[in-house]
Amino acid sequence: MKIQHRPFLPDLERGGEKEYELTSFCVKITNIQAVAYVGFAYFCVFTGIALMIVTNIRNHNYHGALAFGSLNVLNISYSPNYEIISLYQTIVVFYVSVYYISVDLIATGLLVHIAFQFKMVQNNFQRVVYNAYREMCKSDIHDSLSLNFETFSKGYETVTPLIRWKYLRSSLQKAAKYHAAVLRLMNDMEEMFSLMYLVQFSTLMIVMCFEIYNATAVDNTLDIIFSLAQCVTLLLQLLLTCFWAEYVLHEGVQVSSAVYHSHFVGTDVRFQKGLVLVIQRSQREATLTAGNMATVKLATMAWIIKSAYSAFMMMRSLK
């Protein structure tokens, strides 16, 4: 499903100016979190390089520590082996960082997009009766007599009984199809990223455990900063995913509240029955799972942190 095509593009006829406002805010949020995540990630990379340089200078050994862990397979105690391996290690870390950061930001960006699509669905259902009224005015060549949405909302009880069924049905069908398209988009994301999140969360829990242990085991201030910076980056990665997954879940359920506030009083009974079906569908949570084993949400993040800390305490007791 192509998210750059309709019905995911903002539509002035469907949701008014609010759709453009929501789209702009969505883009702004996505850009801010991308800059923050990339900044933290490469802060870790450059901290590792700085730690290597400072350690070698302090020890007066310019063929000693590597930036991202020691290597025992090759003899790097002399040139040019040390320089070649150090350069190769740095290039690989940069390449892998770009790859993982890109995947994380694509997945998180999709979650942000889906969350704001649900907000646009809510706005669409709040205007569903008004859209039918406006369409009826256009068809009857009375467009100049139609009210704006704010005025319509204040006195809709006198207008809604006059809206004919065919216009109500058309407006409801368009809103329901849009809602279904967003739900399919969420299902597609579940299929694409569910297994990835299972592997990612399992790996994060293990890596966080060792990073916390390493931060408490070293005496060098730079080593501690490096380990803590990695922990912060891992937590940011986890926070972005879990926060937006839970936000999607919340906004998906809020569609039913938007339908309830759609000014349906006085409309055709068939239209009201259709709204009931939409409410029932929206009450089923649009969840993202990690390998169909756990729902991705903030409670999952808390459990991962708790498990990593418990493993750290066990490792420390065995020291």
Q: What keywords describe this structure?
A:
single chain, mainly alpha, 9 helices, elongated, odorant binding, receptor, sensory transduction, olfactory receptor activity
Which secondary structure elements does this structure contain, and how are they paired or packed?
Layout: H1 12-15, H2 17-58, H3 81-126, H4 128-139, H5 149-154, H6 165-217, H7 221-260, H8 269-282, E1 289-290, E2 294-295, H9 298-318
Antiparallel strand pairs: 1-2
Helix pairs in contact: 2-3, 2-7, 3-6, 3-7, 4-6, 6-7, 6-8, 6-9, 7-8, 7-9
Membrane topology: Multi-pass membrane protein
GO molecular function: odorant binding; olfactory receptor activity
GO biological process, one term: signal transduction
Structural features, described:
This protein is mainly α. The chain has one domain (17-141, 163-318). It is built from 9 helices and 2 strands, in the order H-H-H-H-H-H-H-H-E-E-H. A hairpin with a 3-residue loop joins strand 1 (289-290) and strand 2. Keywords: Cell membrane, Membrane, Olfaction, Receptor, Sensory transduction, Transducer, Transmembrane, Transmembrane helix.
β-strand percent reads under 5%
Mean pLDDT: 82
Question: What's the N-to-C terminus distance?
Answer: 52 Å
- Strand adjacency order, main sheet: 1-2
Number of domains: 1
Number of helices, where a helix is a run of at least 4 consecutive DSSP H or I residues: 9
Give Rg in angstroms: 27 Å
| Overall body shape | elongated
Membrane topology: Multi-pass membrane protein
Transmembrane segments: 34-54, 92-116, 193-213, 225-245
GO molecular function: odorant binding; olfactory receptor activity
Subcellular location: Cell membrane
